[in-house]
Amino acid sequence: MGYEPIRVVKLLSGVGLPPTIRAPEAALQTFLDGTPLALAAGFTQESAFGGSELIYGFAGEHSHYLAVAGTAEDGHSEGAPTNQPHAVTVPVGSWVKDGKVQVWLATDDVVFRAKLLLGQVFTQALVIPSGRYKLVKDTDGYWYIDSTHTHTDDEDACEILGVDPASPNTVLNAAVFFRVAAACRVL
């Protein structure tokens, strides 16, 4: 059993839809859907949790590995249709390479879903007001929450709100709802 992308779930207020934007992507990014993103010089990139870097949001799609930051690229075209030299053929389901990436913004009201570290058990004791847990990147490129790491380091960005009742197992290797701590986010 592996990890899965971090997903946006709902708003705590219950009003409206979680905020999302298409933000300019930094060059040569290789992150996966659900990756925590930070801003660097106005471009989104995978969060390294270093220094004063804050979480901007989570990727709503894979990165596009752009040669030049924020610049649209061809690459989804299969060439021009017959007798239509100014048209392009775009395969169904191909990624749009407009120089931007979809970002689910991390605000105080937005609730996300992530898995706990394999082998960890969810208990109600993990739901601590202002308690922060560590986001960790697995070797498969997806991220999970380590509930044993509860300091105030840069990567301790998650406030666990509860277990996902739809999780196949609500105790061992559970999926949990969380929000990004105020001290760890841009918005």
In brief:
The chain is built from no helices and eleven strands.
In words, what does this structure look like?
By secondary structure, this protein is mainly beta. It has one domain. Helices cover 0% and strands 30% of the residues. The protein has strands at residues 7-11, 20-24, 36-40, 43-46, 57-59, 100-105, 110-115, 133-137, 143-146, 156-163, 175-180. The strands form two sheets. A six-stranded antiparallel sheet has the order 1-7-11-10-8-9, with no helix packed on it. The chain has a five-stranded antiparallel sheet with strand order 2-6-5-3-4, with no helix packed on it. Strand 3 and strand 4 form a beta hairpin. It is elongated, with a radius of gyration of 18 Å.
Strand content: 25-35%
Mean pLDDT: 87
Helix content: under 10%
Q: Cα distance, first to last residue?
A: 33 Å
Find the count of extended strands (DSSP E, 2+ residues). Answer: 11
Shape, principal axes of CA atoms: elongated
Question: What does the radius of gyration come to?
Answer: 18 Å
Contiguous runs where pLDDT drops below 50 for at least 5 residues:
none
* Total helical elements: 0
Q: How many domains make up the 3D coordinates?
A: 1
